[in-house]
Amino acid sequence: MCYNCGCRILEDDMGNPANIHTAMLEELSEKWQLDLAEVKKLFLDYTEGKEIGEKQVELEIIFNKAAAAWGQPLEDAKKNTAKILAEA
After folding, report:
1. At the N or C end, where does the chain have fewer CB atoms within 10 A?
2. For the chain, what is the domain count?
3. Cβ atoms 12, 53 nearer than 8 A
4. Which one, of 22, 12, 9, 6, lies nearest residue 67 by Cα?
């Protein structure tokens, strides 16, 4: 879940699949028929407030669920995720 909490354990959902973790990104890669790098770019663009087209609504739902799962404000979930994706 590292993406939204900032712990940097990218494979761990911390017991709640709503947290953003590597398996989630891989599942979205298959679902959206994009490679993992493209999915990560969509996530980063979303966290930076860029319009990302048809995936926008789905990412809003994902981030709202992730923030709620970790008990954090939505903006913190976005900020933590953006920082990790920008460093990758």
Report:
1. C
2. 1
3. no
4. 6
Distance, first Cα to last Cα, the chain: 15
Per-residue pLDDT of the chain (88 residues; tens, 9 = 90+): 478 876 777 877 777 888 899 999 999 999 999 999 999 999 999 999 999 999 999 999 999 999 999 889 999 999 999 999 888 7
Q: Is the dihedral of CA 56, 57, 61, 64 positive or negative?
A: positive
DSSP string, the chain: -HHHH----TT--TT-TTS--HHHHHHHHHHHT--HHHHHHHHHHHHTT---GGGHHHHHHHHHHHHHHHT--HHHHHHHHHHHHHH-
**pTM metric for this prediction:** 0.88
